[in-house]
């Protein structure tokens, strides 16, 4: 039985090797230490350090890197985090520290029992206070933190005013990127407090100053702030004048451009300029952040986009209403689309009255009311396809119109606009629809002949291109010249007697 013993020994060696491999894997896994994500306090402090680096090196890209994290960071920060950051960045008492802490609630007993960051080493030297840009950044974080509770809305307006005044008094160009975010925070404070119209004079004055200083980021932000203020109060004429008198900076970022195109789309839609409104809303969708990053803006743009497409006589793509971010938000608009598509005026009126509150909140109610004519036109088109002659009274009943005079006016306008083909017989009180076009009428024959002519022309051009390939004659000339050269050599050899005539003519032949 020696073979069996050898197999057992091999198995034992294999088991030992596997155990060693497992031990090595465990050791490697123990060596790899997963670093926990930084706390909000640590992230704010590192952002202040980046701002100081950007000011020292005159590189605004560091400040832009900090501002890109503002949206995610402000959701995690609270009063305790901001207080701890101020205590660590400003170890000594001073006017800046006292001013910042005065806007935060006093620390409770529970706040002292927990440390956010590990204690500093005893050998740590005292660090200087942050630059003014760092202070404005901390104030910006505090303003966004006050937006979380309705009780602090009024306090956020006061802090925003103080911060803006301090920023304008310092007059440092290195604050321009932060200033654009600060004006948005000021507008948000006024909007949450229900006093958005009171901030308009301040925005206009700041916009003039930014345009004179060629501060593109602040100028783009302030134009959007003013447009939002005008559109919120339905002051579309003033918004249109602002757009015509100002030039939006081309160097602005995509988020600012997305907001600008969104407001332009709303203004053009109210002014019955649906084609330009559709283009602007489409640009806003393309330039907007991803749907999961900014779901609210994504939903707001698509609500107006769907309504404008309906006003243009088009039916939106069904895939829009199946998007996970838009499915619930656009449910009411999907019912409106179905009513317009089927031409059912009763269904349209029912849906409009059912979701009137939502449409008014979305500022789309006045635009959706205009769709009534589109619904009637669609219904008349369907009736003209189904009947060769129909009484105006029946049209009035089927489309739920008020009277036969309304039906006669609407049908006449549809015939004049080219929606349907037919005529109204006033004596008999009916509408005669135009004869349906046959599948092989003269128009179809003309189109077919044009397509056949195009195909034949394309075939002839392809044959011509294949018949004479490029530089093909050069190959023929080279082959003929080689044949003549071989004939000269053969004749020369025959004359010299090196080759017999029979061999030169083909040997055995």
Structure characterization notes:
Residues 116-128 have a biased composition (Low complexity). Belongs to the proteasome subunit S3 family. This is Diphenol oxidase-A2. Keywords: Proteasome. With 509 residues, the chain is mostly helical. Among the domains are: 39-103 and 131-195, no CATH class; 313-383, no CATH class; 387-433, Winged helix-like DNA-binding domain superfamily/Winged helix DNA-binding domain (Arc Repressor Mutant, subunit A, Orthogonal Bundle), CATH 1.10.10.10. 68% of the residues lie in helices and 2% in strands. It has 26 helices and 3 strands. The protein has helices spanning 2-31, 40-57, 60-68, 70-74, 79-89, 95-102, 109-112, 132-146, 153-170, 176-192, 200-212, 216-232, 236-245, 254-270, 274-287, 295-311, 331-342, 345-354, 356-361, 365-369, 371-386, 392-398, 404-416, 442-467, 472-496, 501-505; strands at residues 389-391, 422-425, 430-433. The chain has a 3-stranded antiparallel β-sheet with strand order 1-3-2. A hairpin with a 4-residue loop joins strand 2 and strand 3. The radius of gyration is 39 Å and the shape is flat. The relative contact order is 0.03.
């Amino acid at each position: 039985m020696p073979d069996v013993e050898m197999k057992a020994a091999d198995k034992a060696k294999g088991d030992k090797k596997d155990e060693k491999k497992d031990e090595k894997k465990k050791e490697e896994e123990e060596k790899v230490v997963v670093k926990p994500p930084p706390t909000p306090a640590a992230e704010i402090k590192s952002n202040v350090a980046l701002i100081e680096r950007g000011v020292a090196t005159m590189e605004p890209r560091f400040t832009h890197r900090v501002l890109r994290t503002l949206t995610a960071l402000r959701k995690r920060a609270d009063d305790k985090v901001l207080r701890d950051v101020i205590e660590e960045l400003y170890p000594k008492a001073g006017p800046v520290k006292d001013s910042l802490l005065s806007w935060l609630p006093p620390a409770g007993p529970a706040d002292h029992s927990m440390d956010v960051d590990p204690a500093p080493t005893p050998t740590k030297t005292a660090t200087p206070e942050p630059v003014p840009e760092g202070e404005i950044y901390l104030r910006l974080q505090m303003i966004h933190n006050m937006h979380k509770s309705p009780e602090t809305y009024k306090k956020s307006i006061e802090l925003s005013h103080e911060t803006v005044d301090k920023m304008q008094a310092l007059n440092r160009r290195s604050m321009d990127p932060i200033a654009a975010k600060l004006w948005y925070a000021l507008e948000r404070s006024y909007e949450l407090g229900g006093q958005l119209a009171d901030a308009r004079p301040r925005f206009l004055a700041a916009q003039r100053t930014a345009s004179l200083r060629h501060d593109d980021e602040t100028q783009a932000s302030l134009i959007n702030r003013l447009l939002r203020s005008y559109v919120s109060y339905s002051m579309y004429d003033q918004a249109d004048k602002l757009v015509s008198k100002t030039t939006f900076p081309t160097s602005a970022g995509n988020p600012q451009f997305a907001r600008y195109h969104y407001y332009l789309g709303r203004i053009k839609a109210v002014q019955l300029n649906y084609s330009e409104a559709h283009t602007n809303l489409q640009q806003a969708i393309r330039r907007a952040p991803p749907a999961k990053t900014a779901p609210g803006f994504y939903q707001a743009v698509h609500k107006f986009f769907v309504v404008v497409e309906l006003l243009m006589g088009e039916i939106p793509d069904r895939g829009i209403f199946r998007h996970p971010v838009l499915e619930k938000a656009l449910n009411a608009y999907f019912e409106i689309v179905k009513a317009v598509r089927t031409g059912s005026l009763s269904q349209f009126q029912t849906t409009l009255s059912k979701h009137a509150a939502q449409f008014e909140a979305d500022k789309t109610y006045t635009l959706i009311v205009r769709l009534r004519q589109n619904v009637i036109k669609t219904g008349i088109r369907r009736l003209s396809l189904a009947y060769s002659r129909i009484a105006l009274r029946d049209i009035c009943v089927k489309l739920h119109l008020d009277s036969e005079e309304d039906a006669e006016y609407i049908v006449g306008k549809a015939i004049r606009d080219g929606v349907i083909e037919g005529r109204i017989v006033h004596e008999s009180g009916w509408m005669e629809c135009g004869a349906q076009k046959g599948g092989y009428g003269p128009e179809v024959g003309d189109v077919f002949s044009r397509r056949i002519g195009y195909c034949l022309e394309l075939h002839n051009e392809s044959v011509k291109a294949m018949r004479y390939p490029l530089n093909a004659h050069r190959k023929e000339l080279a082959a003929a010249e080689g044949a003549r050269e071989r004939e000269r050599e053969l004749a020369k050899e025959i004359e010299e007697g090196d080759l017999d005539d029979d061999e030169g003519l083909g040997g055995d032949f």
